[in-house]
Design a protein that fits this description.
Layout: H1 2-6, E1 17-20, H2 28-39, E2 44-46, E3 53-57, H3 61-71, E4 80-82, H4 98-107, E5 112-117, H5 124-127, E6 132-136, H6 141-149, E7 154-155, H7 170-177, E8 183-186, E9 197-200, E10 207-210, H8 216-220, E11 227-228, E12 256-261, H9 264-280, E13 285-289, E14 301-304, H10 311-327, E15 332-336, H11 344-354, E16 359-361
Parallel strand pairs: 1-8, 2-8, 4-6, 5-9, 10-11, 12-15, 12-16, 13-14, 13-15
Antiparallel strand pairs: 2-3, 3-7, 4-7, 5-6, 9-10
Helix pairs in contact: 2-6, 10-11
The chain binds threonylcarbamoyladenylate (TXA) and magnesium ion.
Magnesium ion binds near residues 157, 158 and 166.
């Protein structure tokens, strides 16, 4: 009891309240309660259009510390500050460059995060010690109302324990966060399923640090030239990614994951040969395939991420499939490779990271 009162004991359990609220049925009284939890320094997980976020007061250093502890995340990995209105931006950044104004006009609210120079209002605890701050204005109705109710600035990483895939359903938030945070808002499944695109506007040229639903081509329709961090699709050993969080082997399934790239027939044949071999070693195997191919595989657990031609659906299903394979305790996983058009680049970026860049061309 005493420990609970003072929040000293690391493993002290918090009673987590679970509420349901979707965009069509916003309950103002409940939103206010959730906002009050954040204002008082507590944590609330909530739905956004990308993945579920774990929200705390971005301007309160103690809240950021709590977020790191609930996630089991290193505190040099900065948090994204979520705002609900353009007017809120002024107070947290040193200046709003033209490029940011243009991108905000076109893509906010939405799945785009911009890195800008931070103002003194943002504590270093939130930015992992950096002089820059990541800012995003989500479009999800529940997220926006919650941000407003919480005072306008909500720091929110994805609501998973560090090293697990970002949650696309409230049940995964419950799995990872029950007993660690004050409240979880279940808003049903998310729309996109992969985290926002991050673009750094503090360098000479805009540079994408993390690919997402908003692609380079889309950004280049607004800003003439946009670069990409070289670590997005390659394992540039020795080269540190510019988004500190991208260096961690995120999204890592418990099983050892290898991507197999090639013609449909060769991929199935190669994977099935490997699976037969692992079976002789008594290893439990899993496959990530597509609707057309999944029945061809002989693994213990075969999962489809959907239709190969529907990259948006694949983006939405990928983290669910990775979690399900974890739950099945598979030891060896093979995944098909996917096109890198549109959001496909973000899919392959997350898959390559999950595989520690192990990809075989057959
Ligand atoms: O879609 C999203 O962005 C979700 C939802 C909840 O909004 N949030 C999310 O947050 O993905 P998180 O913490 O899981 O990922 C934030 C990424 C990390 O890779 C971090 O290193 C990078 O953003 N980041 C944050 N601030 C940064 C900064 N000032 N400079 C460079 N990278 C930064
Ligand atoms: Mg994350």
């Amino acid at each position: 009891m005493v420990e609970q009162q003072f929040g000293i004991e690391k493993d002290t359990k918090v009673k987590t309240r679970l509420v349901r609220m979707d965009e069509q049925h916003i309950d103002a009284a409940l939103v206010k309660e959730a906002g009050d939890v954040i204002k008082a320094g507590g944590l609330v997980a909530f739905p956004t259009e990308t993945v579920y976020g774990l929200g705390g007061d971005a301007l309160n250093p103690l809240s950021s510390a709590k977020i790191y502890s609930a996630k089991g995340r290193p505190s040099d990995n900065p948090l994204i500050v979520h705002i609900a209105d353009m007017g809120a931006l002024d107070a947290i950044v040193r200046e709003i460059p033209d490029s940011a104004g243009k991108l905000a006009d076109k893509f906010w609210p939405g799945p785009l995060t911009m890195i800008l120079h931070k103002s003194e209002a943002v504590p270093y605890e939130t930015t992992g010690g950096l002089d820059t701050v990541a800012v995003r204005m989500p479009v999800h109705g529940v997220a926006r109302e919650l941000i407003r109710a919480a005072g306008g600035y909500v720091a929110a990483p994805s609501a998973n324990r560090s090293g697990r895939p970002s949650p696309t359903l409230a049940k995964y938030v419950i799995e990872d966060m029950d007993g660690r945070i004050e409240m979880i808002i279940d808003g049903g499944d998310v729309e996109i399923g992969l985290e926002s695109t991050i673009v750094d506007l503090t360098a000479e040229r805009p540079i994408i640090l993390r690919p997402g639903y908003i692609t380079r081509q889309m950004l280049e329709q607004v800003l003439s030239a946009v670069e990409e961090d070289s670590t997005i699709m390659r394992d540039d050993s020795g080269q540190a990614p510019k988004a500190p969080g991208m260096k961690y082997r995120h999204y890592a399934p418990k099983g050892d994951l290898t991507i197999v790239d090639g013609t449909a027939e060769c991929v199935v044949e190669y994977i099935n040969t490997r699976i037969a071999m692992h079976r002789n070693d008594n290893k439990r195997t899993g496959v990530i395939g597509t609707d057309a191919s999944v029945k061809e595989y002989r693994a213990d657990v075969c999962k489809s991420v959907g239709k190969r031609s529907d990259e948006e659906a694949i983006a939405k299903e990928l983290y669910r499939v990775l979690r399900e394979l974890d739950d099945e305790n598979v030891e060896i996983i093979y995944a098909e490779s996917f096109d890198t058009d549109g959001i496909g680049q973000a899919v392959m970026n997350r898959l390559l990271k999950a595989a520690g860049h192990k990809i075989i061309h057959v």
